[in-house]
Amino acid sequence: MALRKVVTKEDPILRKKSRVVEKFDDRLWELLDDMAETMVHAEGVGLAAPQVGILKRVVVMNVGDGLIELINPEIIFEEGEQFEDEGCLSLPSEYYQTKRPAVVKVKAQDRNGKWCVYKGEELKARCFCHEIDHLDGVLFVDRLSEEGQQQMTQTK
Ligand code: ZN
After folding, report:
1. Residues with beta carbon < 5 A to ion ligand 1?
2. From the CA of 49, how far away is ligand 1's center (Å)?
3. Per-residue pLDDT of the chain (156 residues; tens, 9 = 90+)
4. For the chain, what is the radius of gyration of the CA atoms?
């Protein structure tokens, strides 16, 4: 395993769309292992492959209830709203209030290609949405609540 460099918001790769993973091989497993190590080292709760410079639909997350690996994830259900501060390892020291669904269900493949369904509420729901957005080039600052937009304007 090895630490990978986390890119920051100036890097145009963060605005690109990631490709679907088709091969569940050693290279994917190495990427997953490196991403998990990088996330722990950076004290993050989630990391998407574009953040380490790889345009593949791969996410790792751990909101305190164990490591989750998501390959080709899709949100299949969402309900309600929540407004909490979010941050991002690629936007260090920026924290603004963001609007997200209260509950989401996600369908994704595991490292062997098997489809699984996950449910998240509160932080976990936010994290699913935040990381899956990264795969489409979307950052949390694109999803700010009104209050969050004011927070950002005041900071800059
Ligand atoms: Zn992020």
Report:
1. 88
2. 10
3. 799 999 999 999 999 999 999 999 999 999 999 999 999 999 999 999 999 999 999 999 999 999 999 999 999 999 999 999 999 999 998 999 999 999 999 999 999 999 999 999 999 999 999 999 999 999 999 999 999 999 999 887
4. 15
Choosing from 22, 84, 121, 131, which is the catalytic residue?
131
Q: What's the CA-to-centroid distance between 144 and ligand 1, angstroms?
A: 13
Please confirm, yes or no, whether 86 is among the known catalytic residues: no
Q: What is the value of pTM for the model shown?
A: 0.96
Q: Which long-range contacts (CB under 8 A, 24 or more apart) does 41-45 make?
A: 41/3, 42/6, 42/89, 44/89, 45/123, 45/127
- Each domain of the chain, given as residue ranges in start order, spans 12-75+102-138
Query: Which one of 3.20.20.140, 3.40.190.150, 3.90.45.10, 3.60.150.10 gives the CATH number of domain 12-75+102-138?
Result: 3.90.45.10
